[in-house]
Request: fold
Amino acid sequence: MTAPTAHTIEKIVLPNGLTLIIDSASQFRSASVIITAIGGSRVESSQISGATHLLEHLLFKRTSKLDTKQIAAQIDDFGGEINAFTDSESLCIYGTVIKSRILELLEFLSSLLLKPAFNSSDLVIEKSIVRQEILEAQDDISDFLSQEFRKLIWGDDPLAAPVFETLESVQALGMEQIKEELAKILKGKKLIIAISGVSENRAEVLDTISKYYGSLEVGERPTFSSKLNKTSSKSLARQSKQTHLHIAWNWPELCSDRYLPGMCLVSLLGYGVSSRLFQVLREEEGLCYDLGLTVDAYPDTAFCGFSSVFEPRNYPKIYELVKREIGNLCSNGVRDEEFARTKRLIRAQLEMEEDSPRGKLWRAVESEIAHQRLISTDEILSKLELVTKSELEKISSDYLAGARYVLVGGKIPKKLVESDTW
Reply:
């Protein structure tokens, strides 16, 4: 057992490699459980693409003791704060209840994961549900173009595909493939269980986890290795009254020492309402309502992406203003007042997240997946204090001044700006 870290969070590794994260959270009335199986769509072969996401749906169909309606009734009886999701690197089931029911919640979620009893009829129904999910995403022009942009960036890498994959791949999945996928993720080293609100019954929680998970095989955590595609540009017409613009750059990955300075640069340039791009494009010029700069980061790779939606006639000016602002940043550097404001913004967001028990748990889980250790908010804040303007300026020149990906979609403007004239 490792020693508790700051802010009451401790990490325990069971003999079979399962990682348990506990936050006593004694000052709150609620308690949360997050069960994460490391894997997700990044480790699926082409023969089983979409299997993890379909499995996530099927886990809520029935267990050895409960049918579909009984599972639904139990969720509402807890208060309705129970759900699941699949992403590129994991399958998660989670819930929040009043503190007195934490053991019930842990046992319920564990039964969904460890004692599922879904059948062929359930498979047919959930394939139909996933089909509707895929069709809905295809009909949403923002979702569709965002996904096409990922294909431009990632090429044939699994990161380019949505976690639910395609209509054809989902339809091809069989019961045995789903069960095999479940067996693959139920390994000690692949599982992270994070729990808050256990100050009064910590021993019972440990006993419950040992009972449910102690006999699982050890297994090994998957390793991830992806690289961005060669930079390129693309236009993609889609029935719409507006133009969608996406621009992206290679970026420091999640495990890089440059990741935190990079996030400061993103905030300064296009994330907050005082950021350069927000102020110029929206507040000063009134060219768009929706815009932003975000980072899609993983332990091994990342990109920084700008996106906006606007009238086609505004396209040339928006493109040139984005080009101008990034050029100014690369040439003239970071101003003192915006640098200080950005660091205060990030500090405030980190500090306020400490008041959310579930927010702390998610941060701990993400830290364990990416770094295989707990990184406290205090540690991040200490590193934030050491970030310098020169680091931000070096990242801007190393990344933003380089090659980029560009996708123009929706209603295509009459004349496109050539991306290589940046």
